[in-house]
Write a structure and sequence with these properties.
It is a single chain. By secondary structure, the protein is α+β, with helices and mostly antiparallel strands. The chain has eight helices and 14 strands. It has a six-stranded mixed beta sheet with strand order 4-3-12-11-10-9. It has a four-stranded mixed beta sheet with strand order 1-2-5-6. The protein has a two-stranded antiparallel sheet with strand order 7-8. α3 links the parallel β5 and β6. α3 crosses α4 and α6 crosses α7.
């Protein structure tokens, strides 16, 4: 009997987690055809890894982590053609000056919280050096990693600098293909999206013979802005909005969103910049107007042209004509929209820093609202 009471005590203190449901599981009407996993990993050979940190409470609450996206998998150092775009620059993505200049993405895209960018950047370089892996393009003397951020200070002790070198290494090393965990995972652990619990989300689209995959770290928008399948979901769900008791933050767009677009279509850096821009339209479909306080920064890369980083030439590369890019634009917009919705649907209600609580987007209520508007 004593054992049974102990088990009861243990389980009454563990929140019951709902089964993972995504937008399509709930019948949200979305355009386009996804890949097998409906994830950025549908673009071969992309791999994604996470390190999720959840511990403590009150002023010592840790709700953060690191996300790593490897364009060619963690065992392939070959650079990929890439491009980036800043819709609103109140944020950080390191390594973009060389990406803009050289058109090459060498290594992974890493995402964390705002005050851990430097730690993750330096930790990745140490990780590379420790393994004597290739660094940069044609040299082993330098590396300019791409590390991006969104702010998690409402739920995380962000000034506690809890992300470590070991956490970065773990995210890099556990990267894999296949389904991608969403919601409270990796760098997205402590994020808030449209006044609901946000975080990591992903989706993909088939585009003829090619695939486009998107991963987001979603921490943007105000509750009233949220649109899902064109329906004003946020206006229908105004209760329990975070920040509501803090007048300084009440109507502010405090967050940011990082969007990573991957494709196996053979695109040049200028074309990939065009693809990164289209992520803006997928974001807009969900209601954001990219407020002054929001760092909305996007990056796109292509896994085609494995010789992109060759140091001797001339080399031969493939590209599709600009006139044939419209289906890829469509795929990027659609996958971005769905990835943001999946980030919220995959998240769990979280209590963190100083007792702040952010509720998850309620699935049953969402279905009711969609039905009300005939969607």
């Amino acid at each position: 009997m004593k054992c049974c009471w102990l088990l009861l005590l243990l389980f009454t203190n563990v929140p019951l987690l709902r089964a993972a449901e995504r937008a399509r599981d709930l019948g949200v009407p979305l355009e386009g055809t996804p890949g097998a996993w409906n994830a950025i990993t549908d673009v071969k050979p992309v791999e994604v890894g996470f390190q999720t940190l959840i511990s403590g409470s009150g002023a010592s609450a840790v709700r953060t982590g690191v996300t790593a996206i490897w364009p060619r998998g963690k065992n392939d150092d070959a650079p990929a053609f890439g491009g980036w775009f800043s819709l609103n620059g109140n944020g950080e993505m390191t390594g973009t000056t060389w990406l803009e200049e050289g058109g090459l993405l060498s290594g992974p895209v890493l995402i964390t919280n705002t005050h851990s960018v430097g730690t993750v950047r330096d930790s990745f370089i140490k990780w590379q050096v420790g393994r004597k892996r290739a660094m940069g393009t044609g040299t082993n003397l330098w590396f300019l990693p791409v590390v991006a951020e969104t702010w998690d200070g409402y739920l995380n002790d962000t000034n506690g600098f809890h992300v470590s070198e070991a956490d970065t290494a773990a995210a890099l090393e556990n990267a894999k293909s296949g389904p991608v965990a969403e919601g409270n995972t990796g760098g997205g652990t402590g994020m808030v999206c449209y006044g609901f619990k946000g975080g990591t989300g992903t989706s993909s689209r088939k585009s003829g013979q090619y695939t486009v995959g998107v991963l987001v770290q979603c921490n943007c928008g105000r509750r009233a802005q949220l649109r899902i399948a064109g329906v004003p979901v946020g206006e229908e769900m105004q209760n329990s909005a975070p920040y509501s008791r803090n007048g300084a933050f009440r109507d502010a767009d405090l967050g940011s969103i990082i969007i990573v677009v991957a494709t196996d279509a053979p695109l040049l850096p200028t074309q990939l910049k065009r693809l990164a821009r289209r992520a803006s339209l997928g974001l807009a479909r969900t209601g954001s107007t990219s407020g002054n306080g929001s760092g909305d920064i996007f990056i796109a890369f292509s896994t085609a042209n494995p010789q992109a980083g060759a140091t001797k030439g001339p080399i031969s590369i493939n590209m599709i004509p600009n006139d044939e890019m419209n289906p890829l634009f469509d795929a990027t917009v659609q996958a971005t929209e769905e990835a943001i919705i999946n980030a919220m649907l995959g998240a769990q209600t979280m209590t963190g820093y100083e007792g702040h609580t952010v509720i998850a987007l309620p699935h049953d209520r969402l279905k009711q609202v969609l039905q009300k508007y005939g969607r």
